[in-house]
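Example record for the data management plan.
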Amino acid sequence: MVVFPGQGAFGEATDTLVDGAMGAALRMVIERGDPFLGICLGMQLLFESSDENGGHPGLEVLPGACKRFPEGTPLTPNNPDGRIMKIPHVGWNSVSPSMDHYYFSHSYYVQAARAEDVMWTTRYGMVEFPSAIRRNNIFGCQFHPEKSQRAGLRFLRSFVLGGRS
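Corresponding structural encoding:
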């Protein structure tokens, strides 16, 4: 079982992890079928690429890419009070379909190429994005379960127990 947390920027992580021995080891663990959980940047790195820091390749385990939340986007469709999405997106949001609340802190989100890889979604302003992904032994979450109190503990427990809570 591997838990791959994320801290920092995609470009720095690519230079350090993706192209080196660590990236090869992560791919080997995933291909071997060991349970794998990527958290925040750890989830984003599972995908093919990111626009962050001028664009960088990811581990290319899952099809899709990371995109930056659009600057100056209205918070709601009608937006009567003129509020815009703040970037980075920091705070508590519900995930669908569970409606549990989790803590997020990110400026980039995944656009998964395969809908079947998306386990949960979250809406921030006008953008709906995958907040949790799953394919076979691979799990990922954009939120921080370690900062998400009871909901986060339930999520981690479910991962450790193989999807059973």
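Summary line stored alongside the record: The helical segments are 10-18, 21-32, 41-44, 149-160.
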